[in-house]
Amino acid sequence: MEQRPPTQVDGDELDAVTSAVVTGSRLLVAIAARSLAGAQDKVTLPQFRMLVVLSVHGETKLVKMAELLNVNSSTAMRMADRLVAAGLIVREVNPHNRRESLMRLTAEGRRLVDEVTGRRREEIAVILSRMTSDERSALVAAMAAFTRAGGEPPEDIRYPLGWPDA
Questions:
Q1: pTM
Q2: What is the pLDDT of residues 38-65, one digit of tens each?
Q3: How large is the C-alpha radius of gyration of the chain?
Q4: Which fold has domain 33-157?
């Protein structure tokens, strides 16, 4: 993703915007935690993030997954082992390179991502319905710019707010 050069920002303005985003992120983290509450017997938040990444990217190499999650390969392998044991992903040897592992969601993994994401979307929709149309439009523009600057894939790929969300 192409990075734009930073613009000159007044220190007070940057501090105010940073505070607003941190406050908003607390709300989003709380919503994410609540949406995952029904699935906590199956997955942790980091494991759910792996499921979301698989739902967006499709079949993914273990090394690429570690990179996408910003963890080392052994951590990604342990997470994948737990998700395989839970029946949420399949991990197989890459037929084109036997030194690589490929991972993909199972039907149960897809169902879990859809269920948790659905709960998250419903709760966010309730909050958004309390805002004016102008506020919602401004939020869409601001969030699009924020996620673009952070390198998060846009919503239309498949699962928005999967947890930048990391």
A1: 0.75
A2: 887 889 889 999 999 999 999 999 999 9
A3: 18
A4: Arc Repressor Mutant, subunit A (1.10.10)
Q: How do residues 97-120 score in pLDDT, each as one tens digit? A: 888 889 999 999 999 999 999 999
Q: Which are the contacts of 92, defined by CB distance < 8 A and separation ≥ 6?
A: 101, 102
The tokens for 85 are: 């044991």
- Is the Cβ–Cβ distance between 84 and 26 less than 8 Å? no
Residue 3 has pLDDT above 60, yes or no: no
Residue with tokens 């149960």: 108
Both tokens assigned to 21: 């985003």
Cα 27 from Cα 131, distance rounded (Å) = 15
How is the chain split into domains, by residue range? 33-157
Tokens of 56: 């967006």
- The CA–CA distances, whole Å, from 137 to 13, 69, 124 equal 21, 30, 15
- pLDDT of 164 higher than 50: no
| Per-residue exposure over 35-45, b if at least 16 CB sit within 10 Å of its own CB, e if not | bbeebeebbee
